[in-house]
Amino acid sequence: MKKRNIALALAATLALGACVDDGEDGLNGTDGTQGINGAPGTNGVSVFVTRNDVVKTNANIAYAAYADSLISVVEMRDTLESFINNPTQSSFTQAKQAWLASREPYGQTEVYRFRIGPIDALAADGSIGDDGDGPEGRINAWPLGEALIDYVAPVVDGNSGPESPANVLNGNIIANVEDYPVIDKSTIELVFEFGEDERNVTTGYHAVEFLLWGQDLNQDQSGAGERDSSGGQRPLSDFFTTDNGNTNACTSGQIGVVETLCERRGQYLLAATDILIDDLTKIVEAWEPGAGVHYMAYVDGGDVSLAKIFEGMGRLSFGELAGERINIALTTDSQEDEHSCFSDNTHRDIFLNAKGVQNSFLGTYTRIDGEVIEGASPFDLMVVEGHHELANKLRGSLETTMSKAAVIDTKAKTGTPFDQLIQESVEQPNIIAVIEGLVQQTDDIEQAITALGITTNDLRQDTGEEIGG
After folding, report:
1. Has residue 98 been placed in a domain?
2. How far apart are CA 450 and CA 36, in angstroms?
3. Residue 461 lies in a domain
4. Do the beta carbons of residue 253 and residue 147 sit within 8 Å?
5. Is residue 269, in this structure, part of any structural domain at all?
6. Containing domain of residue 280, as a range?
7. Number of domains the chain contains
8. Within a domain: residue 295?
9. CB-based contacts of 79: which residues, under 8 Å, 6+ apart?
10. pTM for this model (two decimals)
11. How far is CA 223 from CA 219, 227, 251, 342, 345, in A?
């Protein structure tokens, strides 16, 4: 499986090279390629940048980012299997680092949502269907009702179960051997969003995250007390079995439980990762340059596809990121409502999501192996079509947001993670500054849409949060 998937993800590398500026296609404003009104290219932009060029660059970058996501998850699976076979403190750390690494490319793909693409609308037969048919929920749904998967504390900061008590299953999957005698992909998929409850999540990045870190319980059970700078505290012994050479007792929220539970926890970890690989593989196939069902339709989509670029940028900026992912956690002061609440990696989610928006506007993406994919961008197009000031204004807004996101990223890395920054007594202004930056860039994206004469859906429809006035 590993070789097949990595080969798939790398298959179109040469095709991607076509979108890299080699100085011969007019992007340098020299060699006979003139800029606006016959003058040398402004900001290195040529009059020969077309709307179709911009769409194709966007499609090539989408493929590269999803391919990197797939590659990193395949590598994570190998690391997880090694850990399960030999659970040491070192291999446990390596497993967690592999999960963190897998989030880096995926976070930059979120901008390809909200546009009826493979992530949101991929049907079972591989065609692009209706919005909501895609695997996004299986891949990245949050917050989890983690009590469905494994043991949880009696009281937590937030809700660890489903939205409705009517959708509670008997026990958790790992502990309920009678109802779930075998833990494999089918078992996990069977109860995904049981009762159509969006908190009953059994798959994806955050299910794996929960199994590696456990709940972040760094305040007392009354909801008071101070949070520390660490994530969840799942013990290594939760994976001890005699098969992997451990004579110490298996744990599962308590000492000396039946060893089967530790075996099942390892089985769940690998099965959930296998589902993640399956889902990402389908998305990569759909975006494959020159062959993917979505890629082919998208690059021929003209202004409809161009509009999707700006709609994805705006809807991620405002409703999903500023509203659902930041403001809800801020206003409720809830660890359970932060995006990566188990690992305390929410600062990277925010930074990478914002980076994905910037990537789309500037037409550039750096792959996990260091290769830069770049080409004609929306910024280039706006300059070519005479919207110089607005292009620079939007570019500046994106840079401002990134600088604000870099502040909370740095603070987390130096000991003050997101779940501390959202506390009123700590440094909420740093979080508020990111929200304000995202709102401003959404305003500018809307102006760009008007200037280019393209049509999108409402950029502010994805949250009920009152943000930005």
Report:
1. yes
2. 21
3. no
4. no
5. yes
6. 2-452
7. 1
8. yes
9. 91, 94, 95, 98
10. 0.89
11. 6, 10, 26, 17, 21
Q: Which two tokens stand for residue 396?
A: 């500046």
Residue 367, both tokens: 């792959």
Q: Identify the CATH number of the domain in which residue 365 sits.
A: 1.20.1420.20
- Whether the CB-CB separation of 463 and 318 falls below 8 Å is answered with yes
Burial per residue of 87-115, b for 16 or more beta-carbon CB atoms within 10 angstroms, e otherwise: beeebbebbbebbbebbbbbbbbbbbbbb
From first to last of its 469 residues, what are the pLDDT tens digits of the chain? 444 444 444 444 434 544 433 333 333 332 323 333 333 344 555 568 999 999 999 999 999 999 999 999 999 999 999 999 999 999 999 999 999 999 999 999 999 999 999 999 998 888 888 888 899 999 999 888 899 999 998 776 667 777 777 778 788 999 999 999 999 999 999 999 888 888 889 999 999 999 999 998 765 434 455 667 778 999 999 999 999 888 888 999 887 788 999 999 999 999 999 999 999 999 999 999 999 999 999 999 999 999 999 999 999 999 999 999 999 999 988 888 899 999 999 999 999 999 999 999 999 999 999 999 999 999 999 999 999 999 999 999 999 999 999 999 999 999 999 999 998 777 799 999 999 999 999 999 999 999 999 999 999 999 988 887 5
